Amino acid sequence: MSDFGEPVHLLTDRLELRAVGPHDLDDLFRINTDPRTWAHLPEGRHASRATTAAWIERAAARWDTDRLSYWTARLRTTGDVVGIGGAQRHDPGFWNLYYRLDPVHWGHGYATELSRAALAAAAAHSPELPFIAWIHAHNTASRAVAGRLGLTDLGLRPDPANGDPMHCYADREVGVLTRRTAG
C-alpha cells in the first residue's frame, strides 16, 4: 500500500502486482497484439504501440483519480510479466473487473489470483459499490474465473459501456445499469 492507502503494490501467493505505467509498454503491447489474447473480442486487439501507450496512460491516471486501477502482474519467482488486471470504477457506480493475460501463462490460475486481489482491493476501497465482471457468453474461461470468485451470474444484460449483451457477474444483486450522460 502507498502512503495514501491505495494498493499500488501488492503481493499475492505467486504474483507481484504493481500499478501499471509507461515502463510496462513492451510487455503489454506484446500481450495486446497477440490474437489469442483477443479470441473472444478480435476487434479489441491493439494494432499499434501508440494504442497500447494511450491505454496504459488512461489506466495509470485512474490511480490518481480513483485510487484503484490496473496492475501489471509479474511472477514473484522470475519477474516475468503474466499480464495486467485489476478493478476500475465505472459509471454508473460500480467496480469493473478486467484482466488480460499472456497466453503462455493461461491455465495456471493467475487470472483467479489477480481477480481475487482486485475484488479485495475494491471491497476495501468502496464496499458500497458492486463489483462486476461483464463477460461475453462464449468466454467460458472468464466465466469460470467469475464463478471461482463467488460472483453470481445475473444473466445477459446490456453492458453500460457499449450496450452489448453480456453476462453480468456481480458480488450482489444490481438494478438496471445504464451509463449516465452529461446534460
UniProtKB/TrEMBL annotation:
<keyword id="KW-0808">Transferase</keyword>
<dbReference type="Pfam" id="PF13302">
    <property type="entry name" value="Acetyltransf_3"/>
</dbReference>
<dbReference type="InterPro" id="IPR016181">
    <property type="entry name" value="Acyl_CoA_acyltransferase"/>
</dbReference>
<dbReference type="InterPro" id="IPR051531">
    <property type="entry name" value="N-acetyltransferase"/>
</dbReference>
<protein>
    <submittedName>
        <fullName>GNAT family N-acetyltransferase</fullName>
        <ecNumber>2.3.-.-</ecNumber>
    </submittedName>
</protein>
<feature type="domain" description="N-acetyltransferase">
    <location>
        <begin position="15"/>
        <end position="171"/>
    </location>
</feature>
<dbReference type="InterPro" id="IPR000182">
    <property type="entry name" value="GNAT_dom"/>
</dbReference>
<dbReference type="GO" id="GO:0016746">
    <property type="term" value="F:acyltransferase activity"/>
</dbReference>
<keyword id="KW-0012">Acyltransferase</keyword>
